[in-house]
């Protein structure tokens, strides 16, 4: 007899018994309540490829309480189960957009649900057999493409992966920051070590110390056994602090000694533990802006931003959109083969993409679900009337592409040269005078700084 595949059911309390009874015919359903304290060890956590997040009776509970469970069960593919009109609940919308691969409304179409569970079980199997494959499908493709912008990013990430210096990855939501962090880890000498990712946006302030540093047995009432913290777990590998710009100043302070000395102390212990890890941080906003607004500590920033990577928005790498769209469609289509019409592709290329690759994935997924034809049209994507409001698509001439490439080349070379104009000019194989002229032409922000420093060498 074939062994049933495990399926996690995460809810507030046991209900929907009829649906669960149906699922138990094909799946081994393992139930957890997100109202219960998160156990120190989750049995068979690594087997949790797939789960149902039941949000039909969301309690009056802070979202981070639920997110702690979701983070602990990462990288499970979650299928959301929601009431008929979930859009009015901001918490539900947040959980769906951040954690769910798909969602179903009541009453559930069981055939569609079973089909989707089978699909994402297959996706999880592919992911588990592909080292470093992240939760979001688009992350697997985020660094693909042949645009100059993304080729420069790949080159920069390869160079940075060879060092132990901390790396700060900045990019808008949905640009592939997690993919960039994993790229650095996979290409580094630490690739065989652990890859520990902490979602700072979902880290409750009250649990910061215990989550980051761990605790000794008896350190507090429910500390029945010692537990290493997330920082300690990264020893010998890479530590990724995702969404560091969402961390409160008080939480930032807790990190400072670790960032300065590489040492931590578990709660209830006076013994310092040295942690040999490489720190990678991601942020959606430039941290200097947050420092100016007194929302981020400068002493923490200076220990995180040794090497900085700025990921391009999707609107700044439009020539990659056809390839990315086709790759995402091939991932989701299953047995229903579809292709983009010429009009749909034009709309994809000209769209503003405020949500970047995540939005591209979601719109294509929507089209795949709604379209019964072989050809996906613009209407299936929901893009009509949402064209790019920056440079219109018909102004993307050879000259505009050249200007964009020159701006990116300046930023890239200045980053490699640590803002030394002479070295940047050498990298670009042009004279310093030519580089200064280009910087003047595009009002490059680093131009005045370089002149102020008297870079005449």
Automatic annotation (TrEMBL):
Domain of life: Bacteria
One term of GO molecular function: sequence-specific DNA binding
PROSITE patterns: SIGMA54_INTERACT_3 (PS00688), SIGMA54_INTERACT_4 (PS50045)
SMART domains: AAA
Boundaries of every Sigma-54 factor interaction domain copy: 143-369
Keywords in alphabetical order: ATP-binding, Nucleotide-binding, Transcription, Transcription regulation
Keyword Transcription regulation listed: yes
Pfam family, one: AAA_lid_14
Alphabetical list of PANTHER family matching this protein: TRANSCRIPTIONAL REGULATOR-RELATED, TRANSCRIPTIONAL REGULATORY PROTEIN
Protein name: Sigma-54-dependent Fis family transcriptional regulator
Lineage of the species this protein comes from: Bacteria, Pseudomonadati, Pseudomonadota, Gammaproteobacteria, Pseudomonadales
């Amino acid at each position: 007899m074939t062994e049933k595949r495990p399926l996690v059911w995460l809810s507030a309390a046991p209900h929907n018994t009829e649906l669960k009874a149906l699922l138990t015919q094909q799946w081994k359903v393992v139930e957890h309540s997100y109202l219960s304290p998160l156990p120190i060890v989750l049995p068979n956590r690594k087997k949790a490829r797939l789960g149902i997040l039941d949000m039909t009776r969301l309690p009056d509970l802070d979202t981070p309480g639920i997110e702690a469970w979701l983070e602990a069960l990462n990288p499970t593919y979650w299928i959301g189960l929601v009431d008929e009109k979930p859009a009015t609940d901001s918490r539900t919308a947040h959980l769906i957009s951040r954690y769910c691969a798909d969602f179903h409304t009541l009453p559930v179409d069981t055939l569609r649900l079973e089909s989707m569970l089978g699909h994402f079980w297959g996706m999880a199997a592919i992911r588990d057999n592909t080292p470093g494959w992240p939760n979001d499908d688009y992350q697997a493709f985020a660094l693909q493409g042949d645009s100059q912008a993304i080729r420069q990013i790949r080159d920069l990430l390869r160079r940075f992966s060879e060092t132990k210096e901390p790396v700060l990855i900045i990019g808008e939501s949905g640009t592939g920051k997690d993919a960039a962090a994993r790229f650095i880890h996979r290409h580094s000498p630490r690739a065989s070590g652990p890859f520990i990712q902490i979602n700072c946006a979902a880290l409750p302030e009250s649990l910061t110390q215990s989550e980051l540093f761990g605790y000794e047995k008896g350190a507090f009432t429910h500390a029945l056994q010692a537990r290493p913290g997330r920082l300690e777990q990264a020893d010998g590998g890479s530590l990724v602090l995702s969404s560091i710009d969402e961390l409160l100043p008080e939480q930032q302070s807790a990190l400072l000694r670790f960032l300065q000395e590489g040492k931590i102390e578990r709660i209830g212990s006076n013994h310092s533990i040295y942690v040999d890890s490489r720190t990678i941080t991601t942020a959606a906003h430039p941290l200097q802006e947050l420092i100016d607004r007194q929302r981020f500590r400068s002493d923490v920033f200076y220990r995180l931003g040794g090497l900085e990577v700025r990921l391009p928005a999707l609107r700044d790498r439009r020539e990659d959109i056809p390839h990315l769209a086709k790759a995402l469609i091939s991932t989701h289509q299953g047995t229903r083969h579809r292709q983009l019409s010429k009009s749909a592709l034009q709309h994809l290329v000209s769209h503003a993409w405020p949500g970047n690759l995540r939005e591209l994935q979601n719109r294509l997924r929507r089209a795949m679900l709604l379209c019964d034809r072989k050809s996906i049209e613009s209407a299936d994507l929901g893009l009509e009337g949402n064209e790019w409001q920056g440079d219109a698509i018909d102004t993307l001439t050879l000259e505009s592409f050249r200007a964009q490439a020159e701006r990116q080349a300046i930023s890239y070379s200045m980053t490699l040269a640590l803002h030394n104009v002479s070295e940047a000019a050498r990298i670009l194989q042009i004279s310093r005078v030519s580089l200064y002229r280009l910087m003047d032409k595009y009002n490059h922000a680093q131009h005045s700084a370089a002149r102020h420093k008297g870079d005449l060498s």
